[in-house]
Amino acid sequence: MSERDVVVIGAGLSGLSAGIYARLNGYPCLILEQNSGPGGVAASWRRGEYLLDGGIHFLSGHRPEDATSVVFREMGVDLEGRVAEMNVYGRFLDENNGRRVDVTRDLDRLARDLKGYAGEDLETIDLFFRGVRRFRGLDAGTIGLSRAPEQTTPLVKMRELWAVRRAWASFSGVYRRSMSDFARACRDPWLRRFLTGLFLPDVPVWFVSFLLALHADGGLGYLKHGSLDFVMSLEKRFRDLGGEVAYNAPVETVLVEGGRAAGVRLGDGSLHRSGAVISAADGRETLFRMLGGRYLDKAAVGRYTGWKLVPSNLTVSFGLRREFPNEVPLTTISLMHPISLNGVKIEDLLLRIFNYSSAFAPKGRSVLQVWVEADFDFWQSLREEDPSRYAAEKRRAADEILKRLEKHYPGIGGQVEVGDVATPATFRRYTRNQRGAAMAWMPTPRFFRTSLRRTLKGLSHFFMAGQWVSGAGVIPCLYSGRQAAALLCRSDKKPFRV
Ligand SMILES: Cc1cc2nc3c(=O)[nH]c(=O)nc-3n(C[C@H](O)[C@H](O)[C@H](O)COP(=O)(O)OP(=O)(O)OC[C@H]3O[C@@H](n4cnc5c(N)ncnc54)[C@H](O)[C@@H]3O)c2cc1C
Description:
Elements: E1 2-9, H1 13-24, E2 29-32, E3 44-47, E4 50-53, E5 59-60, H2 70-75, E6 83-85, E7 90-94, E8 100-103, H3 107-117, H4 122-133, H5 154-163, H6 179-183, H7 189-196, H8 205-216, E9 220-223, H9 226-240, E10 244-246, E11 251-257, E12 260-266, E13 271-279, H10 283-290, H11 298-306, E14 313-320, E15 330-341, E16 344-353, E17 366-373, H12 376-385, H13 387-406, E18 416-422, H14 424-431, H15 445-449, E19 462-464, H16 467-470, H17 474-491
Parallel strand pairs: 1-2, 1-13, 2-10, 7-15, 13-19
Antiparallel strand pairs: 3-4, 5-9, 6-9, 7-8, 11-12, 12-13, 14-17, 14-18, 15-16, 16-17
Helix pairs in contact: 1-9, 1-17, 3-4, 4-8, 12-13, 12-14
The structure holds flavin-adenine dinucleotide.
Residues 9-15, 32-35, 40-42, 54-58, 250-251, 280-282, 285, 431-433, 438-439, 466-467, 472-474, 477 line the site of flavin-adenine dinucleotide.
């Protein structure tokens, strides 16, 4: 048994951020992580000569001129030499009609390309791009991040909104709807599919508009050395500040004494007593299991029973004896003949090609990864009940996908040196995230309208951080750790230092 001031549950981006900010404020701090290493869903791993990355695709808000980059400076995380420029957001290829569009940083070109293919939808295209253009040159990344809902004030909110007044019209009317709803107005089914495929179909139009404008302004980049390198820089910073991390340390229970969080009990029964607890783990795991469902209000129950999750997927990575000099790092292929995999009809393959840095493969070789939809229940029960069939189904999925890639990259089947399949059950095992949902809640219009509190009524010195309260994304998660530490300081009536 040991006594420390703060215990943080989870060494994902949010837990590491909470730990760094706790240390910056002088709290002795221990991070407990159930896994054997840090990162959570921001994971990359080695297979022979290849570095496979199953996490962060792009970084935003990191440039020195971005308001949100303050979080990197405060945390002491050096991004110098770690970020590669992103020139093409994505390529969209449709096998059914041969249409091909590259989303470059030139929005006029993109609008022209879309109009060239979908002449009946000129108005919808113009409406969409009007929304995007209002975000150009606007630093809207910090809205709602600087303070937790518990600490924000009407004045702070007004200031944040005033700073983006030029884009107000892009936050209202049709732009508040989801992309799939907005795209219903398209007469051309291809355009409908293109628009909903720009990001998740349930996100509001303003979100995609903001993202495309940010891309056009050069605000997106790739992590040159993969997710884990970035995570390790956070972990190192935490340790340099005197923080401690324990791995293979699953928290089972949050201890409560007299209405105050008093530490945690681990799976092996050991206790870590502390003056405060920050959970940066899965929200359901935290509220229902570690706290036994005792601090749930109606809104939280509604959320955990009714809200949509970003579905978990099948992540199939190949280490290949070939290069892809003319490919872009993200391509969506709409298949002429959908694949049927374990009851899921797959119409699109989402390809990541890691050709923007030499860190992922030696010369003459490359890593290509495919994300497809998958059924959590199928993979989870197979993994538990029939491990050899689980392994066989993973191989079958990889083979099916390879067959479809052959049309675009002839000979690819014979160039595979390494194959790796992560299923929804892998994500679940690796993070304990409910239903393997690696990106937490679906960022629907309703999600953005709801502010999720980081504290629980009736329980002091307990705080939540992470994507289940902040929403997924590197920047929101790093800020969520900052907010949790700020709330901790407030509880202790200490000024929050950065
Ligand atoms: C495939 C993918 C691509 C992405 N791409 C991007 C992108 O391009 N840009 C972007 O900004 N964001 C992206 N994201 C989102 C971003 O990476 C995540 O939102 C963020 O990493 C989540 O961090 P977290 O710390 O909140 O949660 P997690 O990473 O889930 O960390 C939670 C940690 O808690 C641990 N834990 C759980 N239960 C316990 C327990 N009982 N005891 C101890 N430890 C526990 C878990 O093992 C895990 O390490 C992507 C995410 C994924 C999955």
